[in-house]
Design goal:
The chain is built from eleven helices and ten strands. With 361 residues, the chain is α/β, with parallel strands linked by helices. α5 packs across α6.
Length: 361
């Protein structure tokens, strides 16, 4: 898919600055947090301002959107922690710690949105909420057991040791999560809900499951009704919520099945599983970037090898696959780590952007 966005290039920039511009991402250069180098915005403010104007205009053109999940931290220990270092052509930056937006992070949110037109989002994940509730229940169960051992089997259990009902916990979690939208000054939100096939459930199991579905998506639908201008994306398996009216309101639907892919063919399988629940132009494929944890050395790689016998990076494979297939968006988890793997260049993310949205020549 060709971009209608025209990238800046000038003899002045090449001669005076030695900069070759092939994509708008190339403006983001690594630098120490504590040092100031002669960056283009300071050397030639007028040209940089024009570049930013064109970059913001590019957002509205017909292109495959690129999402980047980014683990924001309160204090910037390096340039790799800064939102402003992410390649400029990332369309949506999904922050993974929306409840921990420090003044420094908020300032960068404002900067990348105002200057670059980048959108800021975060995800409310049903599975994460359920896991937190399960862990809480287990913790309280252990505390109740200890309390009874110390006070006798007939002792009355204190209210603070009684686990909340799951439905009450989900409703409270939604209230907390939705409060981040304004406090973090976000543009959009994402909801993650895998769901499951229901044809094997008995009547009671189906009723319990539908109660959970209607609660999780119902709260979101109610909030969206009161905030109709806020864009909502989705991560999950749309085939399992095909009958829900909210499905049509999602801007982009990322297929969670793609996160288990070990080769590019499994991206296509994820599309096939989604069926005709929504148009392909609204579907997104996401994969993992690499992990900095030595115990997760295989994360971000496919099991297949390239022609030279090297491990294939999932992000690079997604770039090639995304260029050849009709989807509305691609995305990268653990984006912040790619800064450290690529000496500050974010080359893998840039190549993904260039692959799915080739520059106009």
């Amino acid at each position: 898919m060709k971009k209608t966005f025209k990238y800046l290039s000038s003899a002045l920039m090449v001669a005076a600055l030695g900069v070759t511009m092939t994509a708008c991402d190339d403006w983001t250069e690594p630098e120490s947090v504590d040092l100031n180098y002669g960056t283009i915005d300071k050397i030639d403010p007028a040209t940089y301002a024009k570049y930013l104007e064109n970059l913001r205009a590019y957002r509205a053109t017909n292109h495959k959107k690129v999402y980047a999940w980014f683990e924001n931290v309160a204090e910037f220990g390096s340039q790799g922690h800064r939102l402003s270092a992410v390649p400029d052509s990332v369309d949506v930056l999904v922050l993974t710690n929306p409840g921990e937006i420090s003044p420094a992070v908020k300032a960068e949110i404002d900067q990348v949105r105002k200057d670059k037109g980048m959108e800021l989002s975060y995800c409310i994940d049903y599975a994460a909420i359920k896991a937190e509730w399960t862990a809480l229940c287990e913790d309280l169960a252990a505390k109740r057991l200890k309390y009874l051992e110390e006070n006798g089997a007939d002792a009355e259990i204190p209210a603070e040791l009684i686990a909340p009902e799951f439905i009450d916990y989900v409703a409270k979690a939604w209230t907390t999560q939705l409060s981040y939208f304004k406090s973090g000054n976000f543009n959009s939100i994402m909801a993650a809900f895998d769901g499951k096939a229901t044809n094997h459930l008995n009547a009671q199991e189906l009723a319990e499951y539908m109660e959970q579905v209607n609660l999780f998506l119902g709260i979101l639908a109610d909030w969206h009704k009161r905030n109709p201008d806020v864009v909502i994306d989705f991560m999950g398996k749309p085939q399992y919520i095909a009958g829900h009216p909210l499905l049509n309101d999602f801007r982009m639907i990322f297929l969670s099945d793609a996160l288990t892919a070990t080769n590019p063919d499994m991206f296509s399988m994820a599309l096939s599983k989604a069926g005709n629940a929504v148009p392909a132009s609204k579907l997104g494929i996401v994969t993992y970037g690499r992990s900095l944890d030595p115990d997760e050395a295989s994360v971000g790689y496919f099991v297949t090898l390239d022609a030279n016998g090297n491990k294939v990076l999932a992000v690079e494979a997604l770039g090639a696959w995304g260029a050849a297939n009709e989807v509305g968006a691609v995305g990268v988890m653990n984006t912040q780590n790619e800064y450290f793997f690529t000496n500050g260049s974010y080359s893998t993310v840039r190549n993904l952007i260039q692959g799915v949205n080739p520059s106009a020549k």
